[in-house]
Amino acid sequence: MLIENALSGLIILVAITTFSYSLGIIALLSSLVGTIAAKIGGAEEQIIKRGLFGYNSVLTGMALNLFLTGPYHWIIALVAAAMAAFLTAAILHVMKDSEIPVLTFPFIILTWFTLLTSYHLNVFHISSDLVPQDLSRSELDITGIINWSEVPFNGIGQIFFIHSTLSGILLFIAVFLAGWKLGLYAVFGNAIAMLTSYFLGGGSYPINLGLYGYNAILAILAVSIVFKTAQNRFALFSGIIASCLTVPLTASVTTWLLPYGLPALTMPFVLSTWLFLGARKVLKNL
Fold it and tell me: In chain numbering, where does the site feature Important for channel permeability fall (predicted)?
């Protein structure tokens, strides 16, 4: 979640476990697997301590544990968690000259490709929830009621694939413990996503589940705080625009992936954040 705080990490794990014991266990094991893989591989200790290898492993393990079924899905999830550390290292090397952060890109690519193997390798069994859809038959439902009291907590929860008011509250507490500014911006980013998706005519179901919120939260934290420098005078404004941008990006990436039955994951966050961090190499004030 772009924060480096041990207590916050513990609370995040509690929030995940509160929603699902199995998700909590796989999150912990995936973190250990990713960290051990990085240590054995000889990664710099400073990078390991910052959790740069752990978070992609955690998200990969959790995603595959959720989106795969069958007797081997736990094993596949943990092997993929280790592979996420290797892929993170590879992309770190490829992108080091650009000075653009890897973010969650390794998790996204590895998860998508692993899920797609299920159509040709029988050991992999994709969840029945991920059904390829015909775009010509896809319909947008905007008639439902928006539950504004739950959407904020579902928004932050979806970072870790959870939708629960209690877990969402715990996640907000974790962010505020890491820094009041981080917490405030997380709330702000969530609100931006809620309003943007509503006024752009987003479907009530994805809005209620928080599917437009989590990418916006991550984008504003990354652009306005985590990767901000003294030169970036308009960092808050850039973060707001980046958050707003994640909403149409979420809609477009989701549409692009419908024929494959794949989830958008955090790709909208990555695209929006890369856009602004890349632009800053030329437009220093952003």
Answer: 266
